[in-house]
Amino acid sequence: MYETYWKELGGKMDFTITGCQSLSYFANTKNLCWFLEPKLEQEIRNLHNNVGNAIVENRHVIVGTGSSQLILAALFALSETLNDPNPVNVVSAPPYYSSYPEMTDFLRSGLFKWAGDAYTFDKDEPYIEMVTSPNNPDGFIREPVVNRAKGMVVHDLAYYWPQYTAITSPADHDIMLFTVSKCTGHAGSRIGWALVKDEKVARKMVKFIQVNTIGVSKEAQLRAANIMEIISLSCQRSKPRELANFFEYSQNLMVERWNKLRNAIKNNELFRVSKFPLQFCNFTRDFTETYPAFAWMKCKEGMDCEKVFRGHKIVTRSGKRFGSGVEYVRVSMLSRDEEFDLFVQRLSNIHGIGN
Ligand code: PMP
């Protein structure tokens, strides 16, 4: 979706890695996260300070192969610390990101297990709650819902960037996860990072990544650092004139797409999407709604929405996968322009279940 922005920058983003560069597993042996490139750490801290979406002071920065790897690293670190013979319950409030259950149970770990719906979790046992805010799939701002004594929380803030929602305050949680996938659009670089308060937890997360992949690609880290540097520069008043403010640019795109989507279903009784409240964004210094990266669409009661959409050549993910019903689907709002326009066009043509 942000490809055009990066295309317009042309060769300005090019950088060279010579054959003799970055050969070692290590990036900085003095750092707790010894495989984290110092330049990436600096750009992560800068970007958060510029955007104001997370506290970085007194936090350990841990880089991962996407935030996907860090989700597992966090589950490992939190559950291993407990030293409990039983697997720790992992919960999330539906609709939740469909990868959480899959990731949690994939290796049938003895450390943690998927325990499903956070709203109904009432066991007097340790648990880890995954809190995604803004939420994937429905875009709403979220807080923990279990709030019991033996709880630990992982805040997945992949979408807490100004193009998707108002930055109302710097997030200040024990474990916060971010990713370039959703921030800059460079999902293929596979770079995510965690901001972690507790040193012991941070060390265990690093240990997980050490055993899993012995660190994270240096090439990818350096590229991500470059891209984040440009984004930070693009938000400065003193930026080069030809460099458009990335967040302004990407928010405009999101607004445009959401307008197109809402227009396409305006007079359609079959589908609904949520409205989001206006909130003041400290970054843009303006009021804004939330423009989620996904449209969470509700079809008429009893309809298998995924099936209806498939009949109209629209690929979606069924609500079932997110702990909700088949009357919901999740549709990506982040595809390429042509693909998105085709989606809206096909959506406008659905007037009845058999049409
Ligand atoms: N968390 C959430 C909420 C996501 O939506 C995604 C990507 N769909 C991820 C984590 C994983 O992102 P990454 O590409 O950094 O692995």
UniProtKB/TrEMBL annotation:
This is Alliinase C-terminal domain-containing protein. Belongs to the alliinase family. Gene3D superfamilies: Aspartate Aminotransferase, domain 1 (3.90.1150.10), Type I PLP-dependent aspartate aminotransferase-like (Major domain) (3.40.640.10). Keywords: Pyridoxal phosphate. Residues 1-350 form the Alliinase C-terminal domain. The lineage of its organism: Eukaryota, Viridiplantae, Streptophyta, Embryophyta, Tracheophyta. Pfam families: Alliinase_C (PF04864). One of its GO terms (biological process) is amino acid metabolic process. GO terms for molecular function: carbon-sulfur lyase activity; transaminase activity. CDD domains: AAT_like.
